[in-house]
Amino acid sequence: MDFDLMIASLPKLLSAAVITLKLLSASLIIGLCIGFLFAVLRLNKKPFINKFAYGYSYLFRGTPLLVQIFIIYYGLGQIEWLRSTFLWVILKEPYWCAIIAFALNTGAYTSEILRSAFQTIKPGIIEAGKSLGISSKIILYKIQIPVAIRQSLPAYGNEIILMMKGTSLASTVTLMDITGVAKHIVSTTYKPLEVFLLAGGIYLFMTFIIHNLIKYLEKKYSFQ
Amino acid sequence: MDLLSFGKTGWGDELFYATLMTIAVAVTAMLIGFLFSLIFTPLKLSNNKFLNFIGNTYTTVIRGVPELLVIYLFFFGGSGAIMYVASIFGYFEYIEINAFITGSVAIGIISGAYSTEVFRGAIQSIDKGQFEAAKVLGVSKFVQFYKIILPQMLRLAIPNLSNVWQITLKDTSLISVTGLVEIMRQSYIAAGSTRDPLFFYCFAAVLYLMLTFLSMKLINRLEVKYSRGF
């Protein structure tokens, strides 16, 4: 074990962790909006609308994230007319391509989590609201949404951790996140064990923080 | 459609073999994962604190670290580690491990962590009375496990194992970074030589969708089989 190398590469990996966190937070915020939208579409009674939402989540959950990134980063650049629109400003950057892919991917999983949370709300709660004469709009905002958020917290926590691990794929489209930097250091020092173990340690630490944060939120918003 | 024709001009046959490779890696990894969960599930359920710690460390570490990093560690660090062990036994030649084996073992270890959690959950949700009844009837531990616990556990575990299978199948795409020619790698090669990445990556996505769809159909049948009598 080359401990000097480990100490020397720690600052580089930590500054790369900032990029990982940026990718993660951007894709989670966009993904949450997409997930919420598609969860609502899934619960819509019109078959065309909920089939469409189901198709979206099936497509993104049934294919590997790597394929999704490659289609967006390498594939979309091939379409001529896309290159002439303003979208190209975004799509030529690997950073934004990675965020788009991650957001669409986590959006699909989030929509499933939120949908099942909405579906498992006990009808009694809604009926209680109705019998108290509360309007259906307020029932949605003050009863259904808070209960659904509470119920989906454990599953969403898992999704955050899965997404954090997913950001390592950004290194395949030339981004220098933790995995990208670790691989770069290995390619110059030929010490894979030390560097990858250190990078793994940083990821593990981030998982630990997220896990405890979610646990704290679960406790804070529990019904007892 | 010319791009997908079989033979020298198209990529149909190459992609077909690549799909078989993906299936082979996924199945091997899943089996290696079962082997790992066979070792680690009893550790996680054990009352011994030390054994418990080992079991928990395995599942926590593997599930907390990106799959890609595990694959890099195995691919770049694997041969070095094996050569180090070999040097202790007095063998100093260069040892190169096959990409299929490194890839399957790396994905297998990841899949094992997930299936260990599934088996632990399934065993824990079996009624305690079942264990006690077996004990009272004087059934040996071995028969107790194979005839009483395992059939009930499988019924509970299959839906979750099907999730683990999906994860494993999708994780095989990451092995493409090691150069093993599976769906993703083959699409990369084809995209590079035809300059048509959009078509080939979309086709790869279709292949993965087909694999996940077909395996779901198969697993649903298993589920029905093991739910008989419930």
TrEMBL record, chain B:
Q: Which Gene3D superfamilies match?
A: MetI-like
Q: Which UniProt keywords apply?
A: Cell inner membrane, Cell membrane, Membrane, Transmembrane, Transmembrane helix, Transport
Q: Name one GO cellular component term.
A: ATP-binding cassette (ABC) transporter complex
How does the record say this protein sits in the membrane?
Multi-pass membrane protein
Name by which UniProt lists this protein: ABC transporter
Q: Please provide, alphabetically and separated by semicolons, the GO molecular function terms listed in this UniProt record.
A: transmembrane transporter activity
* Matches recorded under NCBIfam families: HEQRo_perm_3TM
Instruction: Tell me the protein family, please.
Output: Belongs to the binding-protein-dependent transport system permease family. HisMQ subfamily.
Keyword Isomerase found: no
What is the source species? Answer: Pelagibacter ubique (strain HTCC1002)
